[in-house]
Structure formats: structure tokens, C-alpha cells
From TrEMBL:
<keyword id="KW-0819">tRNA processing</keyword>
<keyword id="KW-0479">Metal-binding</keyword>
<dbReference type="GO" id="GO:0061711">
    <property type="term" value="F:tRNA N(6)-L-threonylcarbamoyladenine synthase activity"/>
</dbReference>
<dbReference type="GO" id="GO:0046872">
    <property type="term" value="F:metal ion binding"/>
</dbReference>
<feature type="domain" description="Gcp-like">
    <location>
        <begin position="23"/>
        <end position="327"/>
    </location>
</feature>
<keyword id="KW-0012">Acyltransferase</keyword>
<dbReference type="GO" id="GO:0009793">
    <property type="term" value="P:embryo development ending in seed dormancy"/>
</dbReference>
<keyword id="KW-0808">Transferase</keyword>
<keyword id="KW-0496">Mitochondrion</keyword>
<protein>
    <recommendedName>
        <fullName>Glycoprotease 1</fullName>
    </recommendedName>
</protein>
<dbReference type="GO" id="GO:0002949">
    <property type="term" value="P:tRNA threonylcarbamoyladenosine modification"/>
</dbReference>
<comment type="similarity">
    <text>Belongs to the KAE1 / TsaD family.</text>
</comment>
<comment type="subunit">
    <text>Homodimer.</text>
</comment>
<dbReference type="GO" id="GO:0005743">
    <property type="term" value="C:mitochondrial inner membrane"/>
</dbReference>
<comment type="function">
    <text>Required for the formation of a threonylcarbamoyl group on adenosine at position 37 (t(6)A37) in mitochondrial tRNAs that read codons beginning with adenine. Probably involved in the transfer of the threonylcarbamoyl moiety of threonylcarbamoyl-AMP (TC-AMP) to the N6 group of A37. Involved in mitochondrial genome maintenance.</text>
</comment>
């Protein structure tokens, strides 16, 4: 079995070829970091254009690096949601073009399920059911994974995701955003005192598994302003030593509280999950923010404390990538869940069935699950 995976849901154009046994034959990512740095974010239209410019080359390179051609593939997997429709459309269009020309089945993949399931490529012993924390730029999910496509959502964010808080804080601190705000802030935090600034831990009064990062973000902004740190005008590279230390202290204090919030909600989720299914042995942590070393270490403590084994994919499989799409495609394909190749006369400008908003499983709250 050979699966091509294509991912264009957000701001990275990615493709990969993965073999049925989980061997990664190629992995290509083209990111829009220049746009991010220049504009401070990506508008859907700009992102769509960047994907459209990159997609052919990225897919071709994934095939070339794997030393295969389209006709060697068993099927094509592509992210169909959640994400920006304009962006998703670019990937789906490419996938269908290939599938149409080479008569290949198509597997539509849920981006967040892919973040979770890539852990099964990494650890072949990892069976369902397991608990997963998925932390990225747009999502902050705690789910109980019962099986392929079967998830119960224990918690989500009521406002921002942790990755968004990292990104904004990094920007406000005047960090170099070229490698992404998260990694830059993690780096600077190493120089700071994590107890220097007293940020409030969010949502302590809510005894559930939901998250909130908007308030912490505001606290960071206020901490910068109240110390008169000139981060808006002076990048960290030109800051005086004293200024740099102040910024590092804010970064370290932010990170401590941001991750403490994760730990507290995860501890409760473990308790909920074990009550629902005492056979759970694994705790999966994935998504872009899971590439953070401090996050990994902290959540490993939670796992150990509860006799669970932490599975955290290597950093390049935590951030958006084509491997997780190809792998999740393989899992569904093997289970018989895929679509037939597109009709030979399918028009190029067809309206595809995209799922920009696609919840990962039903919601659960204190003993009752609520179907949407
Ligand atoms: P989503 O998966 O919700 O659609 P996304 O696809 O944009 O969002 P990912 O690539 O999964 O996001 O994750 C990107 C996020 O991870 C960004 O917010 C980025 O700052 C964050 N991130 C990446 N590396 C680190 C790190 N070392 N520390 C903290 N955050 C990080
Ligand atoms: Fe993602």
C-alpha cells in the first residue's frame, strides 16, 4: 500500500508519501512564513494564492523524493476540514485531479484526527481507546478516542487556542517570527524567570475540561505595557540587556501559566476518561504546540502520575505535515472508508464537499454526551 497525503487547511502546503506499514517515504512542507512576518497574519485570500502557487511543486517533490509515480499509489488522502474553505479547496482540487487521471480512490481526512492518529504511526502498540490532547494554532481539544472516526470531546477552548496565545505574545514581545512565534517564545523563555510575573491561571473556578487563553493573552499585553517595554518599536535583537531580561521573564511566566492550565485540565480529563473506560493506557499529545519541549516534559509528568504512557510525536510530525494526512488516509482506507475515483468528466470548477467546520466527535459534559 502506498498513500499520498495532501494538506492545505491552514498556512502550510504539505505533502507526503507513506507506505502501508508506516514507513515514511517522503515529507515536504512549504510554509508561508514570509507572508506571516510581513503581514502579521495570513488572510484567506493570500493563503489560497500561496497554496495555489506551491501545491504542484510540493506534490511533485513528495512523489520524486519517495521515488514513486502517481500510478504506484493505492489512493490519495487529503484534508477536507476543518480549516479555511479557500485553502482546503486547493488541496482537494489537486487530490481529485490526480485521482481522476490515475483512477485512484480518495480519502477525505479530518485535520485534527490526523494530528491525533499520527501517534499510531509513531507507536505501533498504541491501540484505541486513548486520551488525546490536541494543541495547535486553532484548536485546543481534549478527546477520548474510541476508534477510527469515533471521538468524544471532553474539552475545547471557549475562546483562543494555546498556539494563538504563543503567537500573539511572541509578536507583542518583539520576537523574530520567521520560525513561528511559538518556537521563538519557547527559546526566549529559557532565559527568563518563570515566577517573575504573576499571571492568573485561567478557569480555575470551572470544574470542567475546557480551556481559555484570551485572558492570559491580555495579561501578557498588559504586563508589557505596564513595564514600558518598547517591544512595538524595538525588536528583541536590538533590546538592551535589561529590556531583554524583562521580556524573557514575561515569556517564561506566560509559558509556565499557559502550560499549568493545560496540566490542570488534562488531570481532570484523565479522571473523566478513566471513569468512562478504565482500560485506557495511553495519553497522546499532538498538534503544533506539542513540539514544545517544556510542554512535553510537563505533560509527561501528568501521564506518569496517572500510570499512563505519553505518546508525543517528534516535533516535525506535531506541526502541520502531509505524513499525518497520508497515515490517517491509510487507516481509513484499510478500514474500507474511501470514495471512488472522481468521474472522468468531473468538471474542474466543481463545488467540492468541504467541511470547514467539522467537530471531532460528540461533546461530553459531566456524565452526559450531547449529540450535535
Ligand atoms: P490547527 O491544527 O488548529 O488547524 P494549525 O494547523 O495552524 O492549527 P499547527 O501547525 O498544528 O497549526 O500548529 C501551529 C501552532 O503551533 C502555532 O500556533 C505555533 O506557534 C505553535 N507552535 C509550534 N511550535 C511551537 C513551540 N515550540 N512552542 C509553542 N508553540 C509552538
Ligand atoms: Fe494543525
Amino acid at each position: 500500500l502506498l498513500m499520498l497525503g495532501i494538506e492545505t487547511s491552514c498556512d502550510d502546503t504539505a505533502a507526503a508519501v507513506v507506505r502501508g506499514d508506516g514507513e515514511i517515504l517522503s515529507q515536504v512542507v512549504s510554509s508561508q512564513e514570509d507572508l506571516l512576518v510581513k503581514w502579521g497574519g495570513v488572510s484567506p485570500k493570500m493563503a489560497e494564492e500561496a497554496h495555489a502557487l506551491a501545491i504542484d511543486q510540493v506534490v511533485q517533490k513528495a512523489l520524486d523524493d519517495a521515488n514513486v509515480s502517481e500510478s504506484d499509489l493505492s489512493a490519495v488522502a487529503v484534508t477536507v476540514g476543518p480549516g479555511l474553505s479557500l485553502c482546503l479547496r486547493v488541496g482537494v482540487h489537486k487530490a481529485r485531479q490526480i485521482a481522476k487521471a490515475f483512477r485512484l480512490p480518495i480519502v477525505g481526512v479530518h485535520h485534527m484526527e490526523a494530528h491525533a492518529l499520527v501517534s499510531r504511526l509513531v507507536n505501533k502498540d498504541l491501540d484505541f481507546p486513548f486520551l488525546a490532547l490536541l494543541i495547535s494554532g486553532g484548536h485546543n481539544l481534549l478527546v477520548l478516542a474510541h476508534g477510527l472516526g469515533q471521538y468524544v470531546q471532553l474539552g475545547t477552548t471557549i475562546d483562543d487556542a494555546i498556539g494563538e496565545a504563543y503567537d500573539k505574545s511572541a509578536r507583542w514581545l518583539g520576537l523574530d517570527m520567521r520560525k513561528g512565534g511559538g518556537p521563538a517564545l519557547e527559546q526566549l523563555a529559557l532565559e527568563g524567570d518563570p515566577n517573575a510575573v504573576e499571571f492568573r491561571v485561567p478557569m480555575r473556578q470551572h470544574k470542567d475540561c475546557n480551556f481559555s487563553y484570551a485572558g492570559l493573552k491580555t495579561q501578557v499585553r498588559l504586563a508589557i505595557e505596564s513595564r514600558n517595554i518598547p517591544a512595538d518599536e524595538i525588536p528583541i535583537s536590538s533590546a538592551t540587556e535589561e529590556d531583554r531580561q524583562l521580556r524573557a521573564n514575561i515569556a517564561a511566566s506566560f509559558q509556565r501559566v499557559a502550560v499549568l492550565h493545560l496540566e490542570e485540565r488534562c488531570q481532570r480529563a484523565v479522571e473523566w476518561a478513566l471513569k468512562m473506560d478504565s482500560s485506557i493506557k495511553y495519553f497522546v499529545v499532538s498538534g503544533g504546540v506539542a513540539s514544545n519541549q517544556y510542554v512535553r516534559t510537563s505533560l509527561n509528568h501528568i501521564a506518569e502520575k496517572n500510570d499512563l504512557q505519553l505518546v508525543c510525536p517528534p516535533p516535525r510530525l506535531c506541526t502541520d505535515n502531509g505524513v499525518m494526512i497520508a497515515w490517517t488516509g491509510l487507516e481509513h482506507f484499510i478500514a474500507g472508508r474511501f470514495d471512488d475515483p472522481p468521474a472522468v468528466d468531473e468538471p474542474d470548477d466543481m463545488q467540492y464537499d468541504l467541511r470547514p467546520r467539522w467537530p471531532l466527535g460528540e461533546e461530553y459534559s459531566e456524565g452526559r454526551s450531547v449529540a450535535r
